[in-house]
Amino acid sequence: MASSDQHQSPETTNLQLVLVHRYPRFGNSFLSKLQTRYRVFDPVDESDPSLLPLSGSVRVMLCLGPTPVTSETLDKYPNLECIVGTSAGYDHFDLAECRRRGIRITGAGDSFSEDAADLAVGLLIDVLRRVSAADRFVRAGSWPVKGIFPLGSKVGGKRVGIVGLGSIGSRIGKRLEAFGCSIAYTSKRMKPNVSFPFHSNIHDLAINSDVLILCCALTNETHHIVGKEVLTALGKEGIVINVGRGALIDEEELVQFLKRGEIGGAGLDVYENEPHVPKELFGLDNVVLSPHAAVVTPESFNALEELFTYNLEAFFSNKPLRAQIECE
Amino acid sequence: MASSDQHQSPETTNLQLVLVHRYPRFGNSFLSKLQTRYRVFDPVDESDPSLLPLSGSVRVMLCLGPTPVTSETLDKYPNLECIVGTSAGYDHFDLAECRRRGIRITGAGDSFSEDAADLAVGLLIDVLRRVSAADRFVRAGSWPVKGIFPLGSKVGGKRVGIVGLGSIGSRIGKRLEAFGCSIAYTSKRMKPNVSFPFHSNIHDLAINSDVLILCCALTNETHHIVGKEVLTALGKEGIVINVGRGALIDEEELVQFLKRGEIGGAGLDVYENEPHVPKELFGLDNVVLSPHAAVVTPESFNALEELFTYNLEAFFSNKPLRAQIECE
């Protein structure tokens, strides 16, 4: 049916405005589809300067990946009401400032939880059973020369302490129970309906664990939650797995513990100063190093796209948002 | 109490005779303990030639690792009644010849099943989520240079076909269910009390699977059970995991499929000509190579030692043996 308002194209009149906030390398694959449904204001793409005056009227931001949203960012968009995020963590948001301005935020919800849990378990098996080290050994042609590869350690029977029993941590627990590990956890609060033993602090958890798996949010309280004391409590055979955020661990301290053999091993997907990984780790056989890849499979990206598409629509039609983050 | 038979030492009179059959590199750690309980006849160790005349009287053999027991081996020990084995596989025994001579054989039973299942799952996560490849990427210093590492594929939702649902295969199924995989299997016979769908042959299983995991025994029937047809049925995105025996796969064919990108990836712990691994695999990022290390953790060796110690005692006291192999 022809519109009676012929002098404006439907592309600009009928479509709602969405601000896309991103690093240039993120999100190109999402944008073209988004542009079929919304008028996309993408400051990274400077090809359409006519959109710039829209800063004052934009009400919703799609924040791709962990692109920082600071108080200065928010100053540019004074009428922002909602940030639709796409990240499992939310340490890139200035939560206090968002709360002050009454801005609602959503995250990736469960979209990435299975991937992150899978990688955490993969890193743990890899460290215990020395899979990556074995692969290096074979590729270097060492098997026919050196013979038997050193023993690994059994997965079953390990006491695994999960730090942060949210949607990722609980999935890690479920998986590792099937391997015969015994699970305990620490978390802000004891969880109802969870049978795993709870420890009120990470130090107690570390003393009672062979393995610590970090999958909690990075906040002021959890910054460097694993340092000298916790590593000492975990002990010489202890293993640390980190699929949370790099700064949960005092990385310098961890490197020293690993170099001195005062801890058994580590499986790391995240680092304090990404993409830089401490070079001292490159020569160690008891660490497995992954480039912040816990949450990148095509299947999860599809789930994520579904979630943020839903949230954008929900925002414009005043329906409840999914996977909303508490700005506490 | 002093023995009345003073001219013989208790070490040689009171202890039962056990033949140890092994490659020189195997089993040194077990031998000293064994010597406290038995008179050990160890042809590899030629320091005591006085034992050689015992070949005719030895009734039980402790066979360490996959040391071959052929008809020629058996000819040397005409009064052998029982072989206490220590291996998860039994393709190194001439089963027909043992049956003909009425020799009973025991294996490793479940001692190694959890380790093998753990490694199978570890290899699968590693191939799907590219863990070893990611570790290489980070150690090579590529992350800051190349940026984002290519996407992996999600574990959950994969259709996993298990070839051989014995003590290893059933443990693999249990673990992968916790990841949200759907499991099916093929086996000599359909298993009672198993809810996983059964396929009567590996070709049907491959057509209906994203992943094939080989954990069956190597026999005449299973030799090269995975060749051109099965790999074609599995398809371009398909993944093969082998923790059974190298010759379950036509290795040359697999290498060609991998090189031509006609299969998605492979996680291999065993090879046709160990310790030699096809060099064409060393340059591929979609394979993970482990040096026949599925069953080596100290915990499993302890369980194994307990089992064969029990079986030696049971043999001499006419009690039922554990983990007996059917020589069919």
Can you characterise this structure?
- Two copies of one chain form a homodimer.
- The longest helix of chain A has 19 residues, at 298-316.
- The first copy, chain A, is an alpha/beta fold and 328 residues long.
- The first copy, chain A, is built from twelve helices and eleven strands.
- In chain A, α5 (113-129) crosses α8.
- Chain A has helices at residues 10-13, 28-35, 71-76, 95-100, 113-129, 131-139, 143-146, 167-177, 202-207, 228-234, 251-259, 298-316, and strands at 17-21, 39-41, 60-63, 82-85, 104-106, 159-163, 182-186, 211-214, 239-242, 265-268, 287-289.
- In chain A, strands 7-6-8-9-10-11 form a six-stranded parallel beta sheet. Chain A has a five-stranded parallel beta sheet with strand order 2-1-3-4-5, with helices on one face.
- The first copy, chain A, folds into two domains: 10-111 and 298-316, Rossmann fold, CATH 3.40.50.720; 113-289, 3-Layer(aba) Sandwich (Rossmann fold), CATH 3.40.50.
- At the A-B interface, α5, α6, α8 and α12 of A face α5, α6, α8 and α12 of B.
